[in-house]
Backbone:
């Protein structure tokens, strides 16, 4: 019974406010956190069915799907090196006949010449069929220097949890009685020919609150995993204890890493006698590679007078011997630059960097005086460069170059020689009718925010616009060929531009486009800056006549899904459509869902009142209110996502349903955090999204119902 107002006032006055119990609010949608719960799956099936029935029935859906599959499931693709092992190259190949992929190997010389003779090591589709598992490839770690055995990681349905199995490269089969680590979020590294370092789920008490390993053990061949000897353990509230091995010529250097939070970690070198010897690096530095016994790392803060973003090096032998090593300054980026990728060759260090978000590649060689000399590779300007792999046996590296209108090309690079084309993809669409511009918007605090704008030539605005962004975790967003980056909704951007609309890639703060400071500007209580940057780009499109309020779609995945969910709740006036992929939305609960606790270094701890005070200002699930006209979003996720819990997407949809606010929802059964286990699934999702955008911002209007 509701008390009369005067009695309620008297009741409240009878006790000090601190004594009045404050029960935690009950979440009516908590059942959606049960990943495979019957009630949760029933809701998902209803939402999926309604969305698919609505969108697949539209006249253009089938055409989008056919063309998306032709672009994504295609033999005309680069054979990118997964890694170089000795004098051979590994590759994972996907095509129409092999959607899950072929793991293959070829000689380095033939590959570099553009004439590889591939030998298939594992047919992943056939393996899954034979074993009754939906295997998705998650990489391999091969023992140095022979590279004859590899620990192969396979995920059932694409989860982050994997099964690790020992594979014989020469015999092309798994080793009978070899090392096998059961399904878990596992890290392994070779500890010689007959031993492994293993960080995994060893049973009760062996995982952190983030769901990752907290114990590292040495497992010797011929003994059960349960008998492995523990060599390190971390606290339960740390994020993870991981292990890796870095190859340096014929030497393998093992490293154990205690992740304190997402950005701070204690690195220890594992000595030959099993001792853990702490690195002299600060806890916010990242080790990239080891070259001729020198550890090469990147600073994320100022250290010993060297600025954040710099590359430094030290002699590993000094550290293992207990001597204080000299710290060398390898490279200092300019104010417009950001070092993104580093790989060691036989005697040179390869560095990929961004310069005003344009990719560049340099090689560095250490002189007898200890100084590092640079040499820049001559690659296409105003493009995205990705350093694919470097060979430890030769001074050769492989890099891909692409742009929104520039098809991907794979180059082989050697210091002092012109880059050599290994493979170039043909043009997949008519780019002569399109143009790309880099523009800058001004954010709320005056920061200049770069963005790339793609339109058909001669198009006069305002037209519908699609803005994609991420804005977190030092993850830079650089332009890729419009035929399809699945994390950016596949070829939707291409279809959108061809139809006369505008596509935008926004380089908002939170990434690493301009070094550590670009990311630091959005951490914890500063996260609103990422949202304000995004709004500044949208407002710039309106100001310059490219688009108009209500005709702009916001697109983002994962942390980008949080971004666009916040945009939907904070600026429903600006955005007419929302493409929300694998999102975080319930920021009150995120740290208790799957790997969420590992991200508290990025967002803060919602269980602490002082942190919830700033997180609550933008948490999208809690921000949804009755009486507000929100744009109808397209929300997608995967049941098998064991990184960002699918409950974030589900609960947001359920809250919209409560409010009678329209939405579209699609949850793939497999695919993990990628939201698709193979490229056919990516193509299907791209067709759904493009149809949704047409229906929401285009001429074809489709009612998105929110009723059950």
Residues:
């Amino acid at each position: 019974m509701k008390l009369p107002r005067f009695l309620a006032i008297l009741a409240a006055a009878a006790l000090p406010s601190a004594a009045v119990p404050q029960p935690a609010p009950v979440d009516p949608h908590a059942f959606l956190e049960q990943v495979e719960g019957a009630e949760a799956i029933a809701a998902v099936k209803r939402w999926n069915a309604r969305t698919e029935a609505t969108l697949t029935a539209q006249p253009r859906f089938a055409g989008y799907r056919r063309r998306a599959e032709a672009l994504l499931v295609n033999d005309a693709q680069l054979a990118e090196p997964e890694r170089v092992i000795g004098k051979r190259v590994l590759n994972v190949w996907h095509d129409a006949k092999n959607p899950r992929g072929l793991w293959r190997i070829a000689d380095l010389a033939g590959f570099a010449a553009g004439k590889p003779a591939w030998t298939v090591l594992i047919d992943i589709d056939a393996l899954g069929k034979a074993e009754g598992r939906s295997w998705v490839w998650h990489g391999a770690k091969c023992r140095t220097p022979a590279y004859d055995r590899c620990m192969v990681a396979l995920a059932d349905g694409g989860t982050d949890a994997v099964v690790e199995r020992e594979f014989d490269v020469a015999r092309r089969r798994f080793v009978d009685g070899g090392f096998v680590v059961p399904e878990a979020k596992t890290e392994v590294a070779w500890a010689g020919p007959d031993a492994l370092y293993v960080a995994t789920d060893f049973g009760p008490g062996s995982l952190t609150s983030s769901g990752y390993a907290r114990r590292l053990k040495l497992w010797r061949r011929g003994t059960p995993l349960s008998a492995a000897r523990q060599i390190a353990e971390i606290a339960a509230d740390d994020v993870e204890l991981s292990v890796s091995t870095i190859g340096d010529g014929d030497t393998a250097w093992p490293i154990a890493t205690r992740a304190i939070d997402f950005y701070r970690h204690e690195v220890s070198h594992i000595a030959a006698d099993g001792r853990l010897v702490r690195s002299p690096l600060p806890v916010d530095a990242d080790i990239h590679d080891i070259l001729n016994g020198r550890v090469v790392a990147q600073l994320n803060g100022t250290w010993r007078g060297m600025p954040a973003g710099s590359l430094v090096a030290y002699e590993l032998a000094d550290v293992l011997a207990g001597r204080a090593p000299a710290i060398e300054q390898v490279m200092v980026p300019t104010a417009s630059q950001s070092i993104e990728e580093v790989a060691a060759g036989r005697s040179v260090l390869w560095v990929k960097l961004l310069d005003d978000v344009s990719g560049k590649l340099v090689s560095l060689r250490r002189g007898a005086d200890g100084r590092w000399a640079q040499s820049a590779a001559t690659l296409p300007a105003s493009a995205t460069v990705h350093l694919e792999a470097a060979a430890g046996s030769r001074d050769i590296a492989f890099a891909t170059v692409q742009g929104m209108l520039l098809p991907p090309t794979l180059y082989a690079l050697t210091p002092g020689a012109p880059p050599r084309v290994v493979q170039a993809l043909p043009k997949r669409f008519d780019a002569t009718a399109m143009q790309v511009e880099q523009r800058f918007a001004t954010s709320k605090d005056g920061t200049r925010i770069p963005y790339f704008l793609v339109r058909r030539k001669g198009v006069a605005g305002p037209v519908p616009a699609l803005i994609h962004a991420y804005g977190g975790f030092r993850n830079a967003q650089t332009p890729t060929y419009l035929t399809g980056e699945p994390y950016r909704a596949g070829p939707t951007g291409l279809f959108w531009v061809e139809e006369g609309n505008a596509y935008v890639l926004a380089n908002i703060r939170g990434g690493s486009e301009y070094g550590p400071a670009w990311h630091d500007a959005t951490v914890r209580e500063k996260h609103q800056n990422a949202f304000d940057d995004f709004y500044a780009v949208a407002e710039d499109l309106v100001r310059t006549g490219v688009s108009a309020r209500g005709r702009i779609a916001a697109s983002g995945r994962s942390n980008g899904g949080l971004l666009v969910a916040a945009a939907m709740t904070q600026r429903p006036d600006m955005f007419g459509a929302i493409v929300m992929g694998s999102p975080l939305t319930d920021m009150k609960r995120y740290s208790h869902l799957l790997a969420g606790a590992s991200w508290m270094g990025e967002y803060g701890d919602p269980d602490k009142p002082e942190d919830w005070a700033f997180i609550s200002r933008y948490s999208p699930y809690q921000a949804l209110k009755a009486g507000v006209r929100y744009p109808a979003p397209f929300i997608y996720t995967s049941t098998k996502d064991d990184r960002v819990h699918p409950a974030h997407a589900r609960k947001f949809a359920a809250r919209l349903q409560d409010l009678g606010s329209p939405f579209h929802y699609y949850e793939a059964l497999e695919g993990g955090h990628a939201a698709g286990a193979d490229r056919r699934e990516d193509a299907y999702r791209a067709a759904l999204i493009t149809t949704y955008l047409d229906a929401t911002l285009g001429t074809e209007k489709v009612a998105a119902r929110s009723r059950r």
User: Anything to note?
Assistant: Residues 1-22, 699-708 have pLDDT under 50 and may be disordered.
